[in-house]
Amino acid sequence: MPPLGFALSCSLLPFGFGFSVLLVLLLEWLAPHVIPFDLSTFWAVEQPLWTAFSGSFLLAWPAMAGGLLLTLVSLPRIRHVQRQLAWQGSADGQVIKLGPVRLVLQSALEEILFRWLLFYAAIAGAVFVDFLVLGFADLHPVRWIFTEVFIPVADFATAGHLHQVLTEHPWTVAAAMLTSNGRFRNTHGYQGILGWIWSWYMGMFLFLVMFEYGLVAAMAIHIAHNLVTLGVHLVIVGTLPRMVIRG
Fold it and tell me: Are 135 and 142 in contact (CB under 8 A)?
């Protein structure tokens, strides 16, 4: 049985990147009221870059510090395995080297996908699922479980840092954040249970950065964190990080 967060993210967003692009474009054209943001809303850079970056860092540092601590704790245990992958490869699948260029591109694409396109699509998904599950009879159990359970729990779990973002918009916005961030978290399942949990927190704080300073700032913070983690990996392990892709 999948974790509840996985089931939830799939139930409100049961489609991938390609359909999300089509859905968002169609809604912006045919029913722009469904998604309460324009396509360009989070792309604007309204402050000097350094001001936006430093402000974003102050918002996201708890999650970034947690990720760095997790890296420092986990790397000594996997140092031997990582060196073997670098020097000898793996018989279990293809070994992928995570160099700085790959990490920069991956970080930027993850922000575009999870903090923008899938987030927008999940707003529409929340509206549709709410209507489908007795919303048409004005009962709205989906809206209730988000507003009374999931959103308060997320607010508590993030120590109130995202309270305004989670509550000042229609409930579908917070539901979409949790749904898209569930997808983001699930893509980090290879990092183990602690990495799986940490990625949820990192994703939520990246949403906070996006709402405060825009998507470009969220990309910059994500890239900076991954590059710092890469540097720590090089110092402790002595090689670039590797992943095994099993066929």
Answer: yes
pTM of the model: 0.91
pLDDT of 1 reads 42
**CB within 8 Å of 5: residues ≥ 6 apart:** 182, 185, 186, 200
CA distance 214 to 141: 32
Q: DSSP for 223-238, please give it.
A: HHHHHHHHHHHHHHHS
SS3 (DSSP) at 210: helix
What is the tens place of the pLDDT at every residue in 196-207?
889 999 999 999
Helix 118-132 and helix 171-186, axial crossing angle in degrees, nearest 10: 120
What is d(CA 87, CA 66) in angstroms, rounded to the nearest whole number?
30
Cα–Cα distance between 181 and 207 in angstroms, integer? 9
Q: Say how many C-beta atoms besides its own lie within 10 A of residue 30's C-beta.
A: 8
User: Which two structure tokens, joined as six digits, stand for 145?
Assistant: 């479980």
Long-range pairs of 3-6 with CB within 8 A, sequence gap ≥ 24: 5/182, 5/185, 5/186, 5/200, 6/182, 6/186
pLDDT at 3 over 70: no
Question: Are 70 and 226 contacting, i.e. CB atoms less than 8 angstroms apart?
Answer: no
More confident residue, 244 or 114: 114
